[in-house]
Structure formats: structure tokens, C-alpha cells
Amino acid sequence: MASDLETKAKEAFIDDHFELALHLYSQSIQLNPKHAELYADRAQANIKLDNLPEAVADANKAIELDPSMSKAYLRKATACMKLEEYQTAKSALETGAALAPAESRFSKLIKECEERIAEETGDLSMQTPEALAKNDVPAKEIELDKDQPNLEIEAAPPKPVYRYEFYQKPEEVVVTIFAKGTPHDCVKVDYGEQILSVAINAPGKEAYHFQPRLFAKIIPEKCRYDVLSTKVEIRLAKAEPIHWTSLEFSREVAITQRVNVSSVSASQRPSYPSSKPQRVDWDKIEAQVKKEEKDEKLDGDAALNKFFRDIYKDADEDTRRAMQKSFVESNGTVLSTNWKEVGAKKVEGSPPDGMEMKKWEY
């Protein structure tokens, strides 16, 4: 079944049906989560759809499963270059070039990364003569006419649908997006090495996309998020215990100072951005927020979804495998936690009373 899905996914990709290819690759990965080739191919589909943080995550997973796969490094570099993360892209390209020295694309893209890095750092010695010539604009072409008034008027920026705030500890950054009454299935959060991607598509509201290049690198597999009644709370695990002077990356920021976690005692409080002049006890606020989350009462589908998420989170490996297998094979109509019961046979669909199952034709 997994091989059939992979074949259909490749055919869909060749026919430029990238959304369908992405869907089929995802189904195939659910059935065969240790197949590195599937992640590398899904990364390419994500690149075509401009899902760049997802593409980086898929390429990283492919590299983790098969460090010798050169095309996984190429996929990662391509996505990183589109995200303007040229140092990360160059590192991936150099590793890929060592694995596939006959592949000319690696050397061409490495050269392009070096030019972009030189432009960012202002290092002219790294730029090629062609790049320097392209940047050399004659003075007469940029000379302003002093007799002409400046008629350019900046339009007022539109009021954002949602707003966000952040605070930090030595080991994590907490981003809060205020989105009252947003259903959990309307929120999608993804993480890259230095990218946060948030998409909110709530009914009756304008779609919200927030994809900053972060101040510093994070550990994607340790990051998590929760959708609460008034907000979306995202916890980013820092790759290094340094103080972030802002949430988003900026070339003008000062060199950060490393925080020695072992030297921070319980009586010391980390400093957080605040518009208030008085000191804020963020530990107390966080404890209060956690209590509110615990006491928050859900109903309907939200309560049922939370119930199943809690089961999956605390379950052992066999229980998780049983839940995944039963849900996929039954087209979402059966959810079993008994691996002994569902592991040895295909789980048939069980539609609600008054409804019938129909097979999806690709």
C-alpha cells in the first residue's frame, strides 16, 4: 500500500499536482515513517508550494534517517536559500557536494550563497567581479533632482488582525498570539532551524500568516504550542542559552551575551521585554496561566480532541502505533489503542449510523 501511494505521489508531482503529491507523500510517510526517500520527496513538493519551513523540516528528517542522501542536502539548501538563510544553505551544500562530487548544482549554489553572504556582511572580497559590476550604479543614475519636491507619501499600515508578544527564559522563548475563540484545527504551527511559521485561518476572519526569521536558532523537535480560548501559546526551545534582544533576526542587532544557566540561582529573575516601568514577576504570571489552562473547560469537539491528544501524548509506543494504524486504515472512523487487536489485520471503516463509506479515488 505504501509503495502504491509513493508511485501515485511521484506521478502527481510530475503532472504539477503538487498539493495532491504532498497529500499522498504524507499518507505514505504515515505508513512508512522510517523511509528517508519519502521525506526528501515531500520536501521538494513543499518547496514547489512555498511551504519552506516544512521543506527544511522534511529535509532534516531525511538526513537524520539517511545521512548519505545527497539530494536531501540539496532540498534543504534550496529551501534555506529561499528563506535567505545562506550560511545554513552553504553548510548543507558543502556536505552534499562531498557526497556527490559529480553533481554540478552544488558548486553553482555554493558560489551563489557566498555572494549573498558577502552582500549581507559587506565583504567585497567574497563577491565575484560580475556581482560587483551589477552593484556598481553610476552616480548620475541615482542623483536626485533638487528642484523637484518629494511627493512620495507612505500609506498607513493596515491594522493587524492578531497581535503577538513574547518573553523568554534562559532555555526557551514563549510567543503569545492573541486569537480569541480560534478553533484548534484552524491553527498550524511549524518550526525550522531559525524559522517560525504560524498560519491561522479562522472562519469569518482574514487569514493570518506570521513567518519570522528568528533572532537565533531553535531546536524544532523540542518546540510545542497550545491553542487556548483566548490565545495561541508557542514555546520555542533555544539551541543556545543566549539572551534574545528581539524575536526577529536583524543585521543591526548587537552581539549577544551568553547566559550561564548554572550560575542563575532561584532568586534571580531573567529580564523580559516590557513596556511597564515596574518589575514584573513573570514566574508568577506563568504559573497563573498554567492554572487557567488546567482549569479551562472545553465542550463538544474541542473536549473530545483534547481527550484524544492527552491519550496519545502519555501513551506508549504500541498504543500510539495502534491509534495511527486504526485511524489511517479506517479513514478516520475508528480509533483503537489496542495494538494486539489491530496490529495483525487491516482495520475496516465503521461509519456512523445512517452513513456509508465511500472509497476516495485519486
Automatic annotation (TrEMBL):
| Keyword Membrane assigned | no
Name a GO molecular-function annotation: protein-folding chaperone binding
One Pfam match, given by its short name, reads TPR_8
Reply yes or no: does the keyword Repeat apply. yes
Q: Which terms are listed as keywords in the entry?
A: Repeat, TPR repeat
Sequence ranges assigned to domain CS in this UniProt record: 159-248
Q: Give the superkingdom in one word.
A: Eukaryota
Q: Tell me what this protein is called.
A: Protein SGT1 homolog
